[in-house]
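Table S2 (continued). Query chain:
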Amino acid sequence: MRDSTRKSGFTLVEIMVVMAIIVTLLAIAVPFYTTSIVRAKESVLMSNLFTMRSVIDQYTYDKEEPPQALDDLVREGYLREVPVDPFTESRDSWEVITDTGPTGQSGVFDVRSGSDRVGLNGTAYKEW
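Corresponding output:
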């Protein structure tokens, strides 16, 4: 008499088909994920640059002289802390542009990212 019970489980072919489907889905999803991460970092960079430029202008208007360093903005209460550059992940990598203010004193005029990477729009982050 034959045993009519059958062992349950997956065949090698079934497992290979499932693995092929998973790999295909990952191949589609990973580029979208990495692009969305870069877009989020670009959004943070634009926001940080807008805020710091606005604060530099406000400091210069209030004090009638430009700040000498980004730390002056924190010391005087215009910023809680110097923001982190999302691409270099550092507070110290900001490229500070100095120029002469309205009273003839030299100081911080503008700030840019210290990253050497190129954005999704094709321009370098240090040119934003």
